[in-house]
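Researcher: Let's walk through a ligand-bound prediction step by step. First, I give you the protein sequence. Second, the SMILES string for zinc ion. Third, you return the three-dimensional complex as C-alpha cells. Ready?
Model: Ready.
Researcher: Here are steps one and two:
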Amino acid sequence: MIVRLSRNYINLLLEEARRKYPIEACGVLFGSISGDEIRVKEIVPLRNVLKSEAMFQIDPEEFLRVLVEYEGKGLQHIGFFHSHPRYASPSIIDLKYMGLWPESIWIIVSHLESRITAYRIINGRIEEVSISIE
Ligand SMILES: [Zn+2]
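Model: Step three, the predicted complex:
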C-alpha cells in the first residue's frame, strides 16, 4: 500500500497546519484507489469544531456537503488529515476513531517537524503507510 501525493499537496498540508496552529487542522482526502495504490487528488480543509489543541472533530454536515460535492465529480473519499504540533503519529483518541473508519487513510501533519505520515487500520492493527511525493 502506498499513498501518492503531489508536492503541492504536501505544501498545502504543512501550510494548513501552520495556519491553524495551535488548534489542530483537519479535513478530508479524495482521490482514487487502484490495487495497492492510493492517489490523493483533492484535499479539502474543514473546520475543527472542537477548536482543540489536542483533538479534532469535523462538522458532520460540512463533511456530508463536501462528500456529495466531490463524489459528484467522480472522486472517492479516501480518508482524513489532521495536524499535531509535534509527533506525527496517532494519539489514543485518533486510534479510537480510526477503528471506526478502518478502510480510510489517516494523514497526520506535523508542521513543527515538517513531517507527514499516513496510517491505516488493517485487520484491527495499525499500519504506517508509505507516502510517495511526486
Ligand atoms: Zn491526532
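Researcher: And what stands out?
Model: The mean pLDDT is 95. The longest helix spans residues 7-20.
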